Amino acid sequence: MNRRGGIRTFLTIWLGQIVSVTGSGMTRFALLIWAYDQTQTATSVALLGFAAFFFFVLLSPFAGVLVDRWDRRVVMLAADGVAGIGTALILLLFAGGALQFWHVFVYEAITGAMEAFQLPAFASIISVLTPAARRGRINGLRTLGYSVTRILAPALGALVLGAADLRAVLLIDLATFAAAYGTLLWVRVPPPAHSAAGQHGRGSVIGELRAGLRYLRTHRGLLYLILLFTGINFIASLTYMSIMPTMILARTGGDEATLATVQGMIGLSALVGAVGVTLLIGRGRLIRWIVVGGVLSFIFGDLLMGMSQALAGWLAAAFVTEFFVPFIFNAQRTILQNKVPPDLQGRVFALDGALRDLIVPFGYLIAGPLADRVFEPAMARDGALAGALGGLWGTGPGAGMGVMYLFTAVLGASLCTLAWVIPSIRNVETDIPDYQEEAAGMPAAPSQPSGIKASSAAPSAP
């Protein structure tokens, strides 16, 4: 397949996935509302998120091995298939008046587990369909699609729930699965060429997983790049991912409209950033986008978010922070796609995703106690830090959480700067040559049946 035809194939898959993920997002939103209505507890809603997250992280390393072993298009077909079957079962249970919370929990667990297959399969398809010079912008399109679905899915889900009920949302979701399935059946994706690194440990799941780890250990620039993003996610989980809603509610006396407006700006900014990626990411060294974007996001975004005490400041902070995120993550993904042999990419992307997601709960666990027991008391009107920081951060409810952003701003900017100081990260684009399939010295792997039925897995972000 020529590269122009490969880009057309990618765009066909991408459009189908946007439609499918929008439907899946509508269902997840509607099921969260249903679960809360049934149980009236926040714990039940949190458990649904935990179910998807836990099984995604648990299976990701092994799923990456199987993605490299199987036909990746068939893996994606399987992913959409199982998600569609799960949605159909939830629809039947709801229509029969038999739907219970544990059914939804199992559905979320299966969906999360199958996303462990879908995400690395889609990411690794890009490198066999597109030329290296276009991958930054292609990844930008992928992020753009995800940003659109993140904005549309909750809004459409709420609209349909208001006009009808959960049954209508599920029927729409099934229709979107059909669209994604049709596009995947229509296209053909060439298999990746065999590489010497990709063949290590062949035949054993554990052996092939070790081959992926061995590749990263011998290409330390890529390993450190993955660990850098694990650190970025951890720092972000201490504030932005965890306490941001609580801080805004505390500082506004529980004004939910203000919080919703800030969250809407986060989605809009991610969308604008994704458009910027498609236009700009091919210019200059990718590692510079990571370092500069990370420093600007942490310094200006975190500081402004923590110091602000009104909507205008929070909106500006949300825009600055989220605008750079697509640049940062797409640059990293493009570097991995350019450097890692395609028949190893399933394992590398799966390990990258698992590490980044695995660290997040630890940030959540630390953030709450730090806010409640350390920073909030310290920024009370007579607190230990009120005299020194109260002039800029204010005092009282929410001020302590605002000060936490000062620390994440410094930590995050320092970590991104350190990436430029470490030669193996700074020079990762020049020290590690781009992978060239024609130079692999081995024939392309034959396209094989996947070994799983074409009805197993779950939707991914586009």
Any overview of this molecule?
The protein has 462 residues and is mostly helical. It has one domain: Up-down Bundle (Growth Hormone, Chain: A), CATH 1.20.1250. The chain is built from 19 helices and no strands. Helix 5 (132-163) runs antiparallel to helix 11 (256-280) and helix 9 (220-238) runs parallel beside helix 14 (345-358). The protein is globular, with a radius of gyration of 22 Å. The chain starts with a helix and ends in a 31-residue tail after the last helix.
Count every helix, treating DSSP H or I runs of 4 or more residues as helices: 19
Determine the CATH superfamily: MFS general substrate transporter like domains
Q: Count up the domains.
A: 1
Q: What is the overall silhouette?
A: globular
Query: Average pLDDT across residues?
Result: 85
How large is the share of residues in beta strands? Answer: under 5%
Q: Briefly, what CATH class?
A: Mainly Alpha
Structure class: mainly alpha
> What gap, in angstroms, lies between the N and C termini?
22 Å
The beta-strand count equals 0
